[in-house]
Amino acid sequence: MRKWLKSAWGISIVTALFSFILTVSYDWLGDRPIFSTMWSLIIIVWRGIVTFLNFELRVWWIIVGVFTMIVIAYIWSRISDTSNPAPFLSYRKDSIKGWNWEWRWYKNHYGKWDIDGLHPVCPKCETPIVESFNIYNIAYNCLRCNYSTKDRLPNFEHIKVVILDNIKKDIYK
């Protein structure tokens, strides 16, 4: 319940309910008909919308507005972080816990960089290693040079933590 109350939806709904309760209380305590304040607010908003929609607009105002938005968008794209990439984006391979690793970077929906496609690679030819099973054990093999190991593969989440810590401590270079 607390998590929901701290979300954007919870905050907006609780705020709307609180405003509604205050408006009804104001009418009730002021000996006015209930919802009269709310009705007055609705009329004010409606009149504002009608006034805005009846505003006489010049064509050149629209042209200048669109041109200004295009210029602002162009300037924004020039100064955004896509033109100045983060220095760690070239850090895409490393040797961690006795295994060689490769990965890609991508921006998640929060706008932060995250690791994608993390996989172990062969120490000899840097080809991705595949897992193979037989009745007795699990082995990891390189399909190109036939390198094979029975060492246990570390947890991928732990490897991600080490990679991000290397970036944080600036020791990836």
Structure description:
The structure is a single chain. This protein is an alpha+beta fold. It has helices at about 1-5, 10-30, 35-55, 60-80, 155-170, and strands at about 95, 100-105, 115-120, 130-135, 140, 150. Strands 1-2-3 form a 3-stranded antiparallel β-sheet. Strands 4-5-6 form a 3-stranded antiparallel β-sheet, with no helix packed on it. Strand 1 and strand 2 (about 100-105) form a beta hairpin. The model has no long low-confidence stretch (mean pLDDT about 85).
Radius of gyration, CA atoms, in whole angstroms? 30 Å
Encode the helix/strand succession as letters: HHHHEEEEEEH
Distance between the termini: 45 Å
What does the average pLDDT come to? Answer: 87
Portion of residues within helices? 40-55%
Strand order of the largest sheet: 1-2-3
- Structural class call reads alpha+beta
Shape: elongated
Query: Biggest sheet: strands, sense, closure?
Result: 3 strands, antiparallel
Number of helices: 5
Which spans of ≥5 residues are poorly predicted at pLDDT below 50? Answer: none
> How many β-strands, per DSSP?
6
- The amount of beta strand, in percent, is 15-25%
Care to give the gist of this entry?
This protein is α+β, with helices and mostly antiparallel strands.
What would the keywords be for this entry?
three-stranded antiparallel sheet; single chain; alpha+beta; 173 residues
Give me the secondary-structure topology.
Elements: H1 2-5, H2 8-29, H3 36-53, H4 59-79, E1 93-96, E2 99-107, E3 113-121, E4 129-133, E5 138-142, E6 148-149, H5 156-168
Antiparallel strand pairs: 1-2, 2-3, 4-5, 5-6
